[in-house]
Amino acid sequence: MGAFRRTYGELEESLLAELAAYGYAKDLGARWNQTEKNLTFPNGSLLMFRYAENMLDATRRQGGQYQLLLFDEMTLTDPRVIRFLSSRLRTGDPERLPVLGVRAGSNPGGVGHGWAKTTFIDPTEGGTKVHVDERGRTVRFIPAKIDDNPHLNPEYAEDLNTLDEATRAAMRDGSWTSFSGQVFTVWRDDRHIVPASIELPASWLRYGGLDYGWSAPSVYELMARDQDGRVWLYGELVMRETPEAEQARRVLALEGNHPPCVRAADPAMWGKTSSALPVAVTYAHEGVPLRRADNDRLSGKARVHSYLEDGPACGYHRQLGWATCPMLHVLDGACPELVSTLPNLVYDKNRPEDVDTHGDDHAFDAARYALMSVGATPHLVLEGVPEREPITDPSERHIERGDVAFRPADLDNAGARRLEDHQDLNDLQSDPALARADGELPEWLGKSQRAPWLTD
């Protein structure tokens, strides 16, 4: 059996302090090893007290074998650590040593709040029923409030009453709907999510945001901007352990006939490992040119905050009698990863203004990349390469210029549908998304003519 907290210091102040108060179970014949932090019972059962704050700590238990795992204050631990340690639940003798599973206690809040809520609270409807998961495991949630513990001193309840509303609701009332440390407290499903039947006009500019990963997922978010500056998220990809070329093909399939004017991508995609091409260039080979995203995390978080706030009501909500509604809407069912993870993000304990990167922040990162590109440097929406054939000839050159990766053919053979904010084509030479390898513009653009699709 294994009992876990993030650090030995936390163990000393919680589980081990309780164990010492009961004499290390000597009345049960148990023997305590202070050096190893092990409690051995007369029948040979072993209870090991261990720490695991991150995946490096967790992998130190890779060879371990547990029949029962105990987690105290579980939501303070990275869910990836919980999931990895849970994979160590096994036995070589099911008849004599059955696997008992996981037992955990926790307050709401922390980096694991969202995972705990979707794993225990939501499936059991707040503890009102027993849930059986897809693997046939029984899941139970036993809610608790301060009044359920008759051993607490009265002053403790009075102290909780002085806390801020979110912390008080979590620690006193056991509320899992809001919690201390939550980043995006303004999120409301009934305000930000709109019916999937709403049609987005083809004239709206489209934007894409891509957060790259392998074991952690790559996430691609698609959004459109309306005439009021509001963004509507309507597409999402979550790709785990997917080769780069296949990712690019899936991006094209999701975009369909409405390619975005900007695909703002994770700056890590421009990194080069050994002799392999950068991931951004592999995308370009598949006909998916990318622009390096603005990765200022604090500015990106602030941008997401601003879009989650209200502005003048959109047409849909005006029909419902609303005067205002959020500046960001998500079509129902279109972006489940973003909807399920964004409200559960918490602040980084070491950088309190930033989102904790140990949480499921991949959809958030993809969305902030896209939002940071909205209204920034103007870009062309390219048409005229409908098939956007992948590169089959390794000798065919690509361009990796500054913050952009694309194929010359993607520009030379393309036609322009919309050019936003530019008033003269001469100033396009400063835009690295359009400049040729020699610094010149593609011939089809010309140089000294006014853009015919713009009006005064």
From TrEMBL:
Annotated region described as Disordered, given as residue ranges: 416-456
Coiled-coil segments on the chain, per record: none
Identification of the protein by name: Terminase family protein
Superkingdom of the organism of origin: Bacteria
Feature: compositional bias, Basic and acidic residues: 416-425
Matches recorded under InterPro entries: P-loop_NTPase
